[in-house]
## 1
Amino acid sequence: MSDTVLSNFTPGIRQERSYHRTFKVGIIGTGWIAESHAESYKNQPDVEVVGLADLIPGKAEAFRERYGLKNARCYLSHTELLANEQLDAVSVCTYNMTHAECTIDALRAGVNVLLEKPMCVTIEEAADIMRAERESGKLLSVGFQPRMDPNMQMIKKIVQSGVLGEIYYIQTGGGRRRGIPNSTFIEKKTAGIGALGDIGCYSLDMVLNAVGYPKPLTVTGYTSNFFGTNPMYQYPDAGHTAQQNAERFDVDDFAAAFVRLEGGIILDFRISWAMHLDTPGDSLILGKKGALRIPSTECWNGTVGGPMKLYTDVAGAQTVTEIPILPSTGSGLFDKKIRSFLDAIDQGGPAPVPTSQIFYNQAIIDAICKSAAAGKEIEVSLPSLD
Ligand SMILES: NC(=O)c1ccc[n+]([C@@H]2O[C@H](COP(=O)([O-])OP(=O)(O)OC[C@H]3O[C@@H](n4cnc5c(N)ncnc54)[C@H](O)[C@@H]3O)[C@@H](O)[C@H]2O)c1
């Protein structure tokens, strides 16, 4: 048996892969999450980070020094970066309000895009992004790294195995008792949306991906900001006191919704940056033949909050099966997110996390905001993608 075949079975013998090109990569927005992108790009043997852009003078240069990206040229805007560099790919790591603009401009410049979550702020922006994606013929993947975790993948495998039967009810969400971020996350002018976009999108993706992303039909949404606007629950950051952060806070710190999905599925959702409670509860997927309990999790780092439980009837007896927590193997979630994006470019697709799915994630977030503002249930109106 050849070494190549053996290495598929024997732990410890690593299968070497060959890399036949060098990806010239840019990073737009050199804030906090860009650090994980830079680290992961550095771990890829076939990537050269050639450009960095940030609106804040000196920020991209400081980032270049910190991460030793000596071949990267620095720019004060994404448009300058796109005009001056021949890029194969960019990571869009800006705050939510500039996701759409940076992504559309990059696609129109013929560059493949790894876009950080949430996809954007409104459903209209999501449709604009998807039109640009189609017209460009380039690859666009949305940065949901939990998709790379084996436990998150197991949720989908269980649902798709049919063991739960037809799904009719889902409860999901997550939250923190105290965990309001600061900086650019708490103002509409940069973040657009609060806990909903920051962590809510992950909980939605965890369950909607498992059940095949059915189209949302109606939404009754609620949002509030009792904690973020109260200096007692605020934190100081580099540029602001707790009082100032409370004053500038104008996004949601809690959201809840009742969503009707195509196929007769009800989705009961809640998410929180702060509340007088440790968790709003486990995620539940109820089907006609069985049910799955996913212990409370914030999802973003791909962890489940304990072993999942599968409830089924076997020969008339009510059984509970514990699903052991699976260890993550190989490189970290971020490396896998970056690698799967690069491999998809190489192979001509499909995108690891396609916009065709995340469009519905964004539609729910958008409809929660609109329903909350209207104070009543609304029908989800999806813009045409033509
Ligand atoms: N995947 C994850 O685990 C994860 C974790 C944290 C944040 N995020 C997402 O990453 C995004 C950024 O978060 P962050 O914490 O890094 O924010 P940040 O505020 O630290 O950084 C954003 C940077 O983008 C820059 N910027 C904005 N518009 C720009 C433009 N047009 N051209 C160039 N630079 C521009 C800003 O000046 C800022 O420095 C958010 O959408 C957030 O939801 C993802």
## 2
Amino acid sequence: MTGDTMTNDSSAAQAKHGGCLCGAVRFTVSGPLRPVIACHCGQCRRVLSNFAAYSAARRGDLAIEGAAALAWFESSPGVRRGFCGRCGSALFWDCDGNDFVSVSAGALDQPTGLRTRRHIFVADKADFYEIGDGLECLPQGQSDPWPQDDAAADGAGGPPAGGR
Ligand SMILES: [Zn+2]
Ligand SMILES: [Zn+2]
């Protein structure tokens, strides 16, 4: 192997790819990805067995291939969770009115180059694990201003970033 494509360290500026376990759904993010928010709410726990690790992409930067295999479940009014209808992989969390779509960080091809920013809904976390990474923990959700500039402009608190 020459490895000439493996030494590229400018990946932040490149499209990111991801997909489900069976490969029926693939997606490409052509813009920035938000740092990961770990959601410990009861909904994410049931869907993912543990907490959810979601990045996010601007709606217009997200291109989905194999959308016919993608299924959606409305988990709260105005909030839908996208998953592969074939293998069940959780892929997206999409809230009406957001100009971004949350993307399952675990569905992204490695390396993602992402870091976790904080934990939310920790009041609802399961009792079989502890959070020990020293990051900020919020008892409930918080609508994260992202992309920073756009969201700061419209002010009003949006829907929670996770669950419920
Ligand atoms: Zn699949
Ligand atoms: Zn959640």
## 3
Amino acid sequence: MGWLKDQIYKTKRAVQGQPALYKALYDTLTVNRETVAGPFRRGPYPSAFGGMWTDRRDYQATVQYACLDDALKPLIEEWHEKGFVIAKGAVPEADIDALLARFDRLPEDHPKGLKVAAHDVEGHSELYDPARITPERGARIVDAFYHMEEARRILFNETLTSFIKAVFDAPPLLTQSLSFEYGSGQPMHQDTNFVVMTSPLHMAAVWVALEDVREGAGALAYLPGSHRWGDYRFSGRFKHFDEDRDGPDGLDGWYAWVKRETEARAVKPAYFHAKKGDVLFWHAGLVHGGSDIEDKSLTRRSLVAHYCPAHIRPLYHFYKPGQRRIYRNGDHLYTTAYYR
Ligand SMILES: O=C(O)CCC(=O)C(=O)O
């Protein structure tokens, strides 16, 4: 398989300098029923990349809306309008304590090959080293759900999966989770910039508070309604960022776009001052990030995860063929770019 991987990366590098060719290949490789249908149903969506049924301006006239439980209707309305929904106390304390106990044991007893991402290893990961989990590095364990039943129990919790399933109108596929010990300090972004799916807006994320978020710990910040602002296109074409393709300053245009939109719409950031067990669901297009960590002695333990509908795929399934496997946990599905 090594030669195939080398060949794929060589081809990727060769086309990265040619955005038109990149786009043609990307469209061909990621073709699916959403991308084929997209251009024909662009009208009702704020994005030219289409989206989920909840993104349609006429979503209340759809079969999916008509079939919703009455209790879910106001939540879906909020999701459509604001791009996020908060479920207070959605995760039982005992499930959180079980995961925290597992995290607490990691320095002495961690799965072989457990990986961590951080600001200074952006785009890559490194092997877990407890001494390197610091607030300055924004260090986060990736895909804990692969190794830890305790993480799967939370991320496949009924409240979480039933809401995401309703939003997708399809079974969710869990991919990419991040476990934070401290605030992320991550600049504002849309997940579509970095978490790439074959249909970019078919994605939702959850933010689970593993403890109360204290003042100064760097709460999650977000711009309500920003998922409906339409598109910023990297290199004039793409919904996602690729540094090799878009250049090291490739995000500058995106920051300028967000600044313009925020000012023109007079949107103020909101902060998730969560209590342990609270969950915030966010839309792929919601602009969000970690607010400044004013007190670096404070932990801000949290678990973030991204899901796509089961008929969509993370893009890494195409350029990391060894990572295409889909695992089952009872009725639930997950996949990982990091382990096998
Ligand atoms: O938890 C945070 O501070 C931000 C997390 C985030 O932006 C993400 O995982 O996409």
